[in-house]
Amino acid sequence: MDLTVTPEMTALREVVASFFARKNPISTVRELLADERGYDSKIWLQLAEQVGAQGLLIPEAYGGAGGSLREAAIVLEEAGHSLWGGPLLASSVLATVALLEGADEAARAEWLPQLADGSVVATLVTALDRPLADAVPSVGVDAGGATLSGAVRYVLDAHLADLLVVPVDVDGRTDLALVSPGAPGLTVELLPNIDLTRRLCSVSFAGTPATIVGTDVASGLARALTAGATAVGADQLGLLRAMVELAVGYAGIRKQFGVHIGSFQAVQHLCVDLFVAQESAAALVAAAAAAEPEEATELTHVLQAYTSEATPLAGETALHLHGGIGYTWEHDIHLFLRRAKLDEALLGDSASHRQALADLLGLA
Amino acid sequence: MSDNLAPADELAGFLEEHLPPWRAQWAGHPDTFAADLDWQRIMQTGNWVAPEWSVENGGRGLDVLSALACAAVLAEHHAPRTAGIFGVKNVGPTIAAYGTPEQREHLPRILRGEEIWCQGFSEPGTGSDLAGLQTRAELDGDEFVINGQKVWTSSGMRADHMELLVRTDREAPKHKGISALLIELDTPGVERRPIRQITGDSEFAEVFFTDVRVPRSSLLGPLNGGWGVTMTTLSFERSGVVAFAKDIEQEVEALVSAHSLTAGAAPLSADNRDQLVRRFVEGRTLGALGNRSLASIVATGEPGAEQSIIKLLHSMVTQKLAATRVSLGGMAALTGSDPEAELAYLGARSADIAGGTTEIMKNILAKRVLGLPSS
After folding, report:
1. Is B237 among the catalytic positions?
2. Which of A230, A327, B99, B149 has the smallest number of CB atoms closer than 10 Å to its CB?
3. Does residue A350 share a domain with residue A249?
4. What is the pLDDT of residue A255?
5. Does the structure show a pLDDT above 50 at B1?
6. Is residue B5 very low, low, confident or very high in pLDDT (cuts 50, 70, 90)?
7. Overall domain count for chain B
8. From the CA of A271, how many Å to the nearest CA of chain B?
9. ipTM higher than 0.90?
10. Does residue B111 sit within a domain?
């Protein structure tokens, strides 16, 4: 496993961090809380142009950067750190890898270049609350083979997607279908959600026209979901970094009893607990993103088992360290806690990942 | 990369040649100090006791990656631990850093196991606050006269030499009045007693000094400059983190394997299964932190903040793993069915105290890494 951080990766991180700092400051995040899209399309396109983020996992032959999950994880981490709501997870990881692993060449050649340059936002229509292993689609193909029926809850960004990538169940086999927005019989509803920075939908199909682009894609879909789970881990790492910065920052400015609260050992130890969570998550994201295919499933479960428990706890601790002001709407810390709670549930909570590990390890 | 494998391959060959006859010879008395010491002498015939030491100091000058590869080979072959480990890992490198040519003559003897060293650091009144130590050494002509007491001296009963921290200036601020001495433990006035631990055995000694006279040439490093020498020894003590992280990851894997269906283990309660998986996650986390620390060492020469974090987590996981082992054994484990597990549980109580308490490690991380203010 190669964990060397290359100069290119360092440069990517600097460019992306600076991009989000300029284009998505917290004031912008706040303005977008009530916005149905949840992000500015202009910024999405600038990210594609200036950083090529959307094409990181797409091979150069399809107009992408031919990078790996290690590079994608850097971008996702910075996006989480910035509370950016752009559909990177939905489109640039989940839908992208599903197409790469499950679609035929014609579909890949048609769509991947458009995903790479940001002109098309796609989303993978799969129930994101379900544990990784449990990916049997709840959408089926109607007799006649050209339309879909079924419903899926908890899909990211379906309300704004230009392309729906839909795993479908065909008599126990999983195939891959593509559906256009506005298709007949398609209903997309925006769901309320604790995370004010990202958008979740329920999607239903009733005799909706679709194009089947891949057959027997279960293992490819599993790889897409595994990549997605590592991407969620990267988002969680970004949140953890922000929580540490906010808590340590506050401890260094808030005074009580004539001294900074950061000089109290109890406060110091809580800040250290946050830092330990951050560093542990960083090590696990690096390991999962760099993993060879045969280790990736296990390491991704380990990563998610850890971060899905540690990140909300860190958010709660970071809020606590802010005292009363952390409990106000106007302070930003709750925005990080909210996003951490959604990340916890995405692609299975900590307990579901531990259950998957128990099965993988052969523990009865 | 193949360059890094070469020393480890050579070591593997050495072990394959020398371990079987050694095991045959000591079959009746395995795990004894005498057996381990004999093994150390054999290892040194091939110059394998401290391959990470520079060639100038008698080692092989191996880089970090090669040294870790060698450690992995030793673990794979279940080679015995180093008998004179404190001399090899901590005191020897400190002597190499500060010693006079005459003092450096200890180094080959340390490697060959002809000298067994211990460290006289903690005192009954001075644990976490090491700089507050009170054992004093007064210069009387050409000799230091030492009076005081040390406690928690690892290998104290077996050792014949000690790196001893003493106060040589009682007027100066506490960090500036300390000196390090290299002494022989059979010097008149030195009395040692074993400390019996909660596990029943005695790995540590308390050591009493009553008018002990040692030559002035015992001084290691500058007079009253011993705090720097202390910091050097402590940094060698803490530098094995990557190896610690990997060791515990392996221990966890072994426990998990032992309880898997393929091993024919009995079904687990839901709680025990969850605890075992949690230990697995913790073990993998430590392994990942170890890898990251290693990448940092290779890139910058420094282990990064990972070092303190690994120490913290290693202590916690050691204790939790020991508790999980006992829990998996149920009442039977508490009543003699797994004596090793019972002892490991009790022995693990030292993990968050020894080598820096968890609270001290957190204080260090808070101030030095997070930049939080002192009180």
Report:
1. yes
2. A327
3. yes
4. 96
5. no
6. low
7. 3
8. 7
9. yes
10. no
Q: Which residues of A touch B256 (CB under 8 A)?
A: 361, 363
SS3 A156: strand
Question: Is 90 exceeded by the pLDDT of residue B31?
Answer: no
What CATH number is attached to the domain comprising A70?
A: 1.10.540.10
- Bridge partners of B170, per DSSP, are none
Specify whether B216 is located in the same domain as B299: no
* Chain A nearest CA to B292, separation (Å): 6
Beta strands in chain B (DSSP E): 117-120, 136-140, 143-154, 161-167, 178-184, 190-195, 204-215, 219-220
Contact A176, A102 (CB under 8 A): yes
Residue A24 burial (CB count, 10 A): 24
How confident is the model over B232-249, as pLDDT tens digits?
A: 999 888 888 888 898 899
Residues A326 and A199 in one domain: no
Closest Cα in chain B, distance from residue A51 (Å): 26
B363: nearest CB among A4, A251, A268: A268
**A29, A110: one domain:** yes
| Final residue before a domain boundary, out of A201, A217, A233 | A217
Q: Do A272 and B370 touch (CB under 8 A)?
A: yes
How many angstroms separate the CA atoms of B135 and B140, rounded? 16
A297-343: pLDDT as tens digits: 999 999 999 999 999 999 999 999 999 999 999 999 999 999 999 99
Give the total number of structural domains in chain A.
3
Within this chain, do residues A205 and A236 fall inside the same structural domain, yes or no?
Answer: no
Contact call for A260 and B373, based on CB within 8 A:
yes
- Given a cut of 50, is residue B47 above it in pLDDT? yes
Torsion over CA: A312, A314, A317, A318 (sign): negative
| CATH code of the domain in which A159 resides | 2.40.110.10
Which of these is catalytic: B10, B191, B237, B253?
A: B237
| pLDDT tens-digit series, residues B285-294 | 999 999 999 8
Nearest CA to CA, how far is A26 from chain B (Å)?
Answer: 23
Instruction: Please check whether residue A271 touches B, CB under 8 A.
Output: yes
Mean pLDDT of A115-134: 93
Which of B256, B305, B309 minimises the CB distance to A363?
B256
Range of the domain at B163: 117-224
Same domain, yes or no, for A228 and A337? yes
Rounded CA separation A175/A181 (Å): 19
Residue A225 is part of a domain; what is its CATH number?
1.20.140.10
Spatial distance between the Cα atoms of B137 and B135, rounded to a whole number of angstroms: 7
Candidates B277, B285, B363; nearest CB to A284: B285
Confidence at residue B240, expressed as pLDDT on a 0 to 100 scale = 81
Domain that holds residue A273: 219-360
The answer to whether A19 contacts chain B (CB < 8 Å) is no
Are residue B244 and residue B191 in the same domain, yes or no? no
A184 and A147, same domain (yes or no):
yes
Nearest CA to A92 out of A126, A119, A127 is that of A119
Chain A residues with CB-CB distance to B295 below 8 A:
3-5
Mutate to test the interface with A, among B279, B281, B361, B364 (most CBs of A within 10 A): B281
Question: Considering only CB atoms, which chain A residues are within 8 Å of B252?
Answer: none
User: CA–CA separation, B313 vs B278, rounded Å?
Assistant: 13
Look up the CATH number of the domain holding residue B182.
2.40.110.10
Q: How far apart are the first and last CA of chain A?
A: 30
Tell me, yes or no, whether A229 and A282 share the same domain: yes
Residue from B291, B362, B368 to probe the interface with A (highest A Cβ count within 10 Å): B362
